Amino acid sequence: MGKRLVLVVAICASLLGVPELKAQNFDLHVYTPDELDAKANQVADFLGAVLPGGMYHTAKLHGIGGFDAGVRFISVFIPSEYKDAPAGPLAGKEFLAVPMLHASLGLPGPLEIMVRGISVTFGDEPTRGTVQVVGAALKWGLVQQLLLPRVTLIGAFHHLTVPETFDIGTTDVASVRIVVSKGLPFFGFYGGLGFDWTKMQVKLPESDLYPLGFSATYNRTGANAAFGFTFSPFPFIKFNLDYSVAKFSGFNAGLTFSFR
Hints:
The chain has 260 residues and is mainly β. Strand 5 (150-161) and strand 6 form a beta hairpin. It has helices at residues 2-16, 33-50, 80-83, and strands at 67-77, 95-107, 111-122, 129-143, 150-161, 168-183, 187-204, 214-234, 237-245, 250-259. A 10-stranded antiparallel barrel has the order 1-2-3-4-5-6-7-8-9-10. It has a single domain (2-259), classed as Lipocalin, CATH 2.40.128.
């Protein structure tokens, strides 16, 4: 089963390739010490919404050895208080999207594991670099009986690594979700509630504003909710689209190959 999971992830990676994102690298060293906390918290809230975004499209678990694999596109809208600000790490940005590869494998009992990740080119010159996201989740099927809506509890952890030239350091997000779904022959509907805990490191080099440099850890929390639908025009193929409500709300879309 483990080899099968690795295989489907590798296939998705080869099809998607390594994407390139045109977005900011969140320069924080340009802000004064009085401004820094507010700006860093904006970035932490943004990462806390994006990294665990689009984690689910159904509450139905796979049987033993069943699996799925595909790609999710996680998008967020930048609130006006950030994008319209004269300066800030998210100033001038209206919409940002990130792709994420994922694969799940059914385990004995009402359990399923999921892995996610992506490696992208991120930021602006001269500090442009490769950003990597790795995530894992365990799903526990609370209600999996036929004819009833499926209910699943998800616990997940995502880890972000960035180049040393970035002002932000590693970021970790722990998440919990409760998901409910109901499937029909070609369509399905799902919704969920969740909570995230984000820990982001900031390391600034020595500069005029920071003669001794600066290092700190920012901890943020946030609740979220999502509602969406799936469409399966062909056997084993599913499309999904949902809208997520959080500090940074947005749409998530996915294409999944599923074998139960």
